[in-house]
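Researcher: Here's a chain I'd like modeled. Treat it as a single chain, no partners, no ligands.
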Amino acid sequence: MKTLISAAGMLGLALITIPVEANAVVCARGVVRAGCAGPNGAVVARRPVPGAVVVRPAPRAVVVRPAPVRCAIVNGRRVCR
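Model: Modeled as a single isolated chain. Structure tokens:
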């Protein structure tokens, strides 16, 4: 009976002390960026910035008319104002 208990105890102790490789991956999503950390390193990704919605009135037809002629001859030269 003692040998059975001691053998079970040795087996349990061996299972506890043997290192096991951790394969856990932890991911988090924040307001600005998201990231994951695993056994091979970490990755961080930024979220795309949403495009601004531009609201503007519909284009109107443009009417171009010539400027009124306000020219005069002063001292022999043409002056337009």
